[in-house]
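Researcher: Please translate sequence to structure tokens.
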Amino acid sequence: MVVDQLRARLSDDDTDRLFHALADATRRDIVARVTVDGYSVSGLAALYTMSFAAVQKHVAVLERASLVTKEKRGREQIVRGNHEGLQKARHLLDQLEMIWRQRAGRIADILTEDDERDLP
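Model: Translation complete:
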């Protein structure tokens, strides 16, 4: 079953971390930015009206969800999008979409069967 395939690919904890990470607009914006180009944490902090520590926490959430990686370069931490983590997220969302499309298709089939039974 499709649900079992989802569980085989990502654990429930991994899935929870992923959705938690993407649930925040700032974190989604950070992912979008670092997917195009790497940013230092201080460079990211300059883009938002929040403290450096708050941006660091957002980056840590994204890193735990495997959506970004950090690379130490001198005294700075460079944040980049993690292609593999983003692909897992995409695959998970594709699988969830497939589940809902199958369910919608089944509902349509049931409604068609009911309509056919109502015909004289």
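Researcher: Any highlights?
Model: The first helix runs from residue 2 to 9.
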